[in-house]
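Re: the 478-residue chain
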Amino acid sequence: MKASATRDSLLELIRLGKPITLRQQLKLTAVLSIPAIVAQLSTIIMQYIDAAMVGSLGAEASASIGLMATSTWLFWGLCSSAAMGFSVQVANRIGANDNAGAQAVLKQSFVPALVFSLCLCLVGLGISRHLPLWLGADKEIAEPASVYFMIFAASLPMFQLNFLAGAMLRCSGNTLFPGIANVVMCVLDVVFNWFLIFPTREVSVGGMQLLMPGAGMGVSGAALGTALAELVAGVVMVVYLWRCNKELNLKGCTASFRISRSCLKRAFKISTPLCLEHFLLCGAQVLVTTIVAPLGTVAIAANAFAVTAESLCYMPGYGICEAATTLVGQSLGASRMKLARSFANITVLSGILVMTFMGVVMYFGAPFMMGIITPVHEICEAGIEVLRIEAFAEPMFAASIVAYGVFIGAGDTMIPACMNLGSIWVVRLTLAALLAPVMGLQGVWVAMAVELCFRGFIFLWRLKTDRWMHANKDMFRT
């Protein structure tokens, strides 16, 4: 409660145009970032546990889910991007001390966001039967992979509800409740998976044999468990938005659910570059996979497991990124350009410091991190080598992650999205294609590290200018 009171009092200084000291800015950044970081880390930890639960069913079950990872990431990203188009507007309205306008944007966001997710749902259901075969799956894993993706696609409106509610709360300045909801969601995911994946079985508890009921759905149970957890979290956050959140309390709000043309136009302008970016990033990931594939089974497995291990190190950056979007969005909404610049610098520097520390942890902890994921010595050794290469790129990776959050808060998404895509498609893929035949998997990760450093540099260069603050001025007009 004390942290919430501190957060609210400091955010109030932004909205009322009152002076806010450097110490207060640092405190506000920490108060917003820490819950978001915990939420991001809890998600990754639960993904580790989730993967282990499915992995216990055998290689085919793991392959069925692993095969669909890129596709599920694409659809997730599109839903998240759609939510950002509205949540950034909410941050700007709250920063302008226009809570009624923020409530109106929130109410207007539900219908278009859900319609968008329903369209994605229909596309996903339509391709679910063929997608595993298009991705080159063997017949043994194609059927369970197809069912897994079908359940995932049918659940997209639930995911959209969760993403939308969480983004709205975070942009209002409340990162604590979405963080708690996210942790609870991850725990529920494990609980639901426990009962849905495995069949009824005997388990030993304190020397006693107990009969543990289970649905025995296997891979399908993993998809259903995640969907149910997302549904619970989404409903809880929407109820909280509707009745409890200070800035976005919709109880008694007379605004219409019918979306205005100006709100939709602004949402489209913010979300479209993000959606396009996620789509093209997915294509880049597929191409990287095709570059790694000729290197052999060990390289493929080591690459996939190392990506999972590295996520523990960069997720704190995404937590700070969320805080940056909120702080910059509200500052610009309050027409406080100097404060927006100050928060941009503070959050980016904080991200660099945190991820530099995480890079050190990854360098020295790589054997432990890979050892948790796989017992195969050859895969483990290859993963350790590439993680230690990547550790040197973490500071600049942090710069690109958090700076992107700053730009999103300003509604500046088109040029940063192009910078992101240009860096990955031109620098990373070109270098990977050149170095892989010579250096093997290490060459692919050297290319990744070089590209991340280059991307961080160009994002810092744009951050240094004032163009990002003026790229979407019309968005701040109420």
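The radius of gyration is 22 Å.
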